[in-house]
Every structure is written in C-alpha cells, then in structure tokens.
Write a structure and sequence with these properties.
This protein has eleven helices and 17 strands. By secondary structure, it is of the alpha/beta class. Helix 9 links the parallel strand 13 and strand 14. One zinc ion (ZN) binds next to loops.
C-alpha cells in the first residue's frame, strides 16, 4: 500500500511530501485512510529534536479517517468505520490498570521510539529505507497509516472528521483538565493563561460548567477577541506589565479559584499561581520543553494553594472523546471556531502560521 506522507529528514528541517509504502496491520493494529490530522506543538518539539525519535520520521498524532483493514485481534472497529486516533497507552501497566492511562509507564516508548508496539518493526519504508513512524502509534501526517487498535476510537458517520482531528490531543488536553481534573462548579472563577487550542478548549469547558468570571490571558489580541466572543467575561494581554494586578482586579474577592496554564511558559505559570485565591488550584497542561524551569515565591503556595500538572486531561479516551464529540455536535463546544484547514502538502505553512499565532488550530486535509 503506497501513500503520500509528510517526511522530516533532519531535525529542525522542513517537511517534504514523499511516497511511502505502508506495512500490513499486525494483530492489534488498524490501517486507517487518514482524511485529516491536527498539527500540534508536540509535532514541533519532535521536529526540533526534543524527543528521542530519530529522523527520517513521520509525525502527527491527531489523525481522523476511515478504517481500511484491521488485524486479527481487533473487534471494536471494522473496515468502513470512521475513527479518530488518540494518545497511546499499553493497557497493562499499574497506571493504565488504575484508570490513569495518560500516565502509562510505556507511553514514552509508544510515542517516541519510532517503532510499532512490538518494539521492532516500522510502519513505513521509502526507497527501501525504513522510516520512523508510529509517532504516538499513529504518525497521522501520512495519508494512510497504522494505528494501535486500543487508542483508535469509533466516531459517528455524521461528525465532520476535519473538525474531529482537533480533539485527540489539543481539545482533549484542555477540556479534560477542566472536566476530569479541576471539576469546577457554577460560579467558580477561572483564568485561562494561554488560549491556543488547549487553553481555548479548557475555557469552553469552564463556560460549560458555569464558571464566572472567566478571564483569558494571551499575547495575541485576535485570540482575546475570539475568547470574548466565545465566553470569556474579560481578557488581559499577557504582555501587560501589570498582568497579575489586572487579573486579580477583574476576578475580585481574594483571587481565582482555578487557573489553567496552557502556554508552557514559566512566566505564565508563575502568574497563574500569583492570581489564585487561598485554596485555589493552578494546573499546568502547557507543553513545556525539557529543561524549562519555573521560580515561585514560596509564600504564594501557602494558604492552601495547589500547583499541579496533568497529562492529556487524565482522560479515558474511549469514554471521554465520544463525550467531547457529543458536546461539539450539540453546539455546546464550538471547537470548529478554532480550526483552519490546510492541504496536506501545505504543512510547512501550517506550522509557520501556528508559530506566528495566525492560526489557533491547523488541521491538514489529505487528498485521496
Ligand atoms: Zn500503560
Ligand atoms: Zn499534541
């Protein structure tokens, strides 16, 4: 099976469109014709060499498409089913069995080894050369790919795959952090630090929970305008020298009940802690690059303040992602407003637009 794939041949490089041969699915794998894939900050971290996955490589970890073929052991999806591909987990380690699959002991190997779950074989070959695929066990920047069955989720046929491609990582991470981890109640105050896809999804979930007031913080004025349109009661530019004072004034009382840090920035995390009320919680979901450190004034975490992180919204993806799709389809989670579509071959332009803040969520559309 031949397919077009966006290949990264060297770290910090540019993607090139090349033809790869896709392997047959193993017993616990699914071959998917990818119709759309989200582009995420983690793909940029991979391009820039922050993960152990060697080049040449095919990234992409928010695939949406149609099942073409399933392995012998696969029963929950069948050819013709529409699916999205979520973060992989082994299902067998202590964290997976405790219901916390986003902290899977084997996650790093499954996401970044470049090898299939068997730990030996690759998904793609190009000109006789093995290509590192299986990024998050899906490498959705290929128009046909192999995914781990366990993290492949069947979705309704009437749901638009080109919007659902925003869900597996970005929307899941933000909405999951709010709905699964922070669990705010109506009337709780909420501050979103960073409103890319993750921060926006968290803010939309906070609105769904009835949080009030909701304050959004970001460097980009057009994002702040969209945030006000979609539910933020007030916004502050992250570059404001009086950021903490202004946010505290907007929240009123003793400070914020909940903050979500989705910028992956030490300054934003510090500000998120400083605007909290006593017993408030600041949760880090931003994708911080390895080596990034934060400094906090120690007294800011007294008075019962909680600083915590979470990976991928602590979601049980087979249960939680269909719930997010239902919320989107019923108009309660307007994630389509965050998405801009690009042709598969325009992946470099999509990445540049995301980096410059021109696009919140880039979704590639694959031609077939
Ligand atoms: Zn596991
Ligand atoms: Zn991601």
């Amino acid at each position: 099976m031949l397919a077009q794939a966006a290949l990264m041949r060297e770290p910090h490089g540019h993607w090139s469109m090349e033809t790869v041969t896709v392997a047959e699915p193993g017993p616990d794998e699914v071959r998917v014709r990818v119709l759309a894939s989200g582009v995420c900050q983690t793909d940029m971290h991979a391009r820039d060499g922050f993960f152990p996955m060697p080049c040449p490589a095919v990234y992409g970890h928010e695939g949406a498409g149609i099942v073409e073929k399933v392995g012998a052991g696969v029963t929950h999806v069948a050819p013709g089913d529409h699916v999205i591909m979520a973060n992989p987990s082994c299902g067998a380690c202590d964290d997976c069995r405790a219901g916390f699959e986003t902290y899977c002991t084997n996650a790093a190997r499954l996401k970044f080894s470049g090898l299939r779950a068997d730990g030996r074989s690759v998904s793609f070959v190009c000109d006789g050369q093995p290509i590192h695929g299986s990024f998050f066990q899906q490498s959705s920047f290929a128009a046909v790919t192999l995914a781990m069955a366990r993290s492949t989720i069947r979705v309704p046929h009437d749901a638009p795959l080109e919007v659902l491609a925003a869900i597996p990582c970005g929307v899941n991470a933000g909405a999951g952090a709010v709905l699964n981890v922070l669990e705010p109640k109506a009337g709780d105050s909420y501050v979103a630090f960073g409103i890319g896809t993750v921060g926006f999804a968290g803010m939309l979930a906070a609105r769904l929970c009835g949080c009030e007031p909701i304050v959004a913080v970001d460097l980009f004025e057009d994002r702040l305008a969209l945030a006000r349109e979609l539910g933020a009661h007030a916004t502050v530019n992250a570059g404001d020298p009086d950021l903490v004072t202004k946010v505290r004034r907007l929240i009123g009382g003793r400070g914020a009940r909940f903050c979500l840090e989705a910028a992956g920035s030490p300054q934003a995390l510090r500000a998120a802690v400083e605007v909290l009320a006593p017993r408030g919680t600041a949760c880090l979901v931003g994708s911080a690059r390895p080596g990034a450190e934060v400094s906090l004034e120690m007294k800011t975490i007294q008075q019962g303040r909680i600083v915590r992180g979470c990976i991928q919204g602590e979601s049980d993806v087979q249960r939680f992602l269909p719930r997010l799709i239902e919320l989107f389809m019923s108009g309660k989670l307007p994630i389509d407003r965050l998405v801009r579509h690009y042709p598969h071959a325009a992946i470099n332009e999509a990445a540049a637009d995301m980096h410059a803040g021109r696009t919140i969520k880039a979704v590639l559309r694959m031609a077939h």
